[in-house]
Every structure is written in structure tokens, then in C-alpha cells.
Sequence to fold (236 residues):
Amino acid sequence: MEERIECCDEHRVHPEIVTHVKLDMPDEERLYDLAELFKVFGDSTRVRILYVLFESEMCVCDLAELLGMTQSAISHQLRVLKQAKLVRARREGKTVFYFLADDHVRTIIGQGMEHLCE
Amino acid sequence: MEERIECCDEHRVHPEIVTHVKLDMPDEERLYDLAELFKVFGDSTRVRILYVLFESEMCVCDLAELLGMTQSAISHQLRVLKQAKLVRARREGKTVFYFLADDHVRTIIGQGMEHLCE
DNA sequence: TCAACATATGAACAGTTGTTCATATGTTTG
DNA sequence: CAAACATATGAACAACTGTTCATATGTTGA
Fold:
């Protein structure tokens, strides 16, 4: 802990800060999960689906038509979104309606948009 | 616009809503950029780098040592982060210090963490 | 200017991801 | 129950991504 692997010989950053940072870091696993979550936002098909669901819950085939993609592709992506707990599903007869799971989705996407616009 | 490609024959979602959603959607390009932005957050090495930079600006080799990765790997990822304008760099002699570009990064990661914890 | 050091970068490779196609599951209606 | 329809899923393939290795660039001090 006190000894460091050879790297830069002169450390501008104090060892205290490095130690402090190490203590403050969440577990590897938690950070891995966080990256996995953002990975879900990192695909334009899925972002588009989420944007649609901002307005209204919708069934798979309407999503497919709206986004100009096959039912299969949309269904695969909805599964990813569902596993990440970003959307939930509600069955009504033959059709399944998907809707946003909670408001973090809006906030996260909103902040992303803000970042793009600055 | 009024005519729809054959899909579900009975539409539970009113055509008005579909039209409304279409109008409210940002451009393809914007949504693509948004997904690209989140893609940057979607890697645990990059998330870890960002977390470290929450605490303090840091040089490449310190980051490499802290995260137990090669200098090259870190440097490649810093470039990605820089291109996305999530971090900025400051040169001081031989060493280059990287730091967070703005506070959206904190908010976005914070919201992501919140989502995981619910 | 040259050696030593910190960082950046290009090529290559393995691992991952999104779509398509074919098909399976599940639901309603006759 | 069978047909029709909406959705889900598995396999396969192309495209993309992150790391490594080798090397280049840029900076300092002798």
C-alpha cells in the first residue's frame, strides 16, 4: 500500500490522494454493473424506443412500425431494456404493452441531451 | 402518414398518439449522438477512470497504476473520453493531467447508481 | 543534441453486440 | 381444438470494441 509499482518517478499527485481515491471507489462489481447499465443506453435503437415510451406505452408491433424495424429486432431490444429494469411490460390479450419503469430513465437521457447541447 | 404498413390489425394505440410521438422525436442524428455518448459510459474501465477523476485530476500513469492497467490501455480510453468531451487535459511538463470536463458526468453517473440501488 | 521519460497511436486479434431468419410460445376467436 | 395473430427466442453472421504490442511523439535536463 505504501510502496508503489514503478511508474512515473516523480508523483505530482500525493500518495494520500491516491489512497483516498482507492478507499472512495465503489466495488469493482458495482462499477461493472454501472457500465452494464449505460451500455443499455448506448444503442440508438434502444434510445429511440425509450424516447417513444416517454410519450406513451406501446405494443411491440407499433414500436416496430414507428421505428421502421422488424418485430424481432424490437423484441430482442425490449428484452435488454427489461432486463436492465428500464422498461416493464403489461399484457392485454395478445398484445404486450411496454412502458418506462421509472423516472431515472428520463433524467439520465435528459442529462445526456443537455451534455450534447452545451 | 394516414396509411400504416400492415402490422397489428387492431391498434390499441390511437393513430393520433403515434403521429404525435413521431413529431416529438428528436432527429435521427441527435438520437444517434446520444447513444454514442452513453456508449462512452458503457465500459467499466472508462467508468472507473471517471470515478477516479471525481476525486482529483490525475496523470495517465497514476491512473494506470491505480486501476491496474497498462499505460496504453488507459491512454486509449482517455482519448475516447476526451472526444466525448467528458474529460479534458492539461499538460505540465512531461506529464498530462486529466480532469472532468463538467458536472453532467457526475449527474449521469449518480443517476445511474441510483437506478442500480432501487 | 541526446538520453530518459510520459504519453499517444496504429495494427492486429479476440471477444462482444445487433440484426436477420426461422421457428417457438402464448392468446383469442371461431 | 385449430387457425390467426402478437410476441419471444435461438442460431448465425457481420460489424464493432477493448486490449496488447510495438513504436512514435513530445518534453525535460544534461
In short: Chain A is about 60% helix and 10% strand. Residues 59-61, 71-72, 74-76, 78-79, 91, 93-96 of chain A lie near DNA strand D (CB under 10 Å from a C1'). The CA atoms of residues 82 and 88 of chain A lie 6 Å apart. Chain A touches chain B through 63 residues (CB under 8 Å).
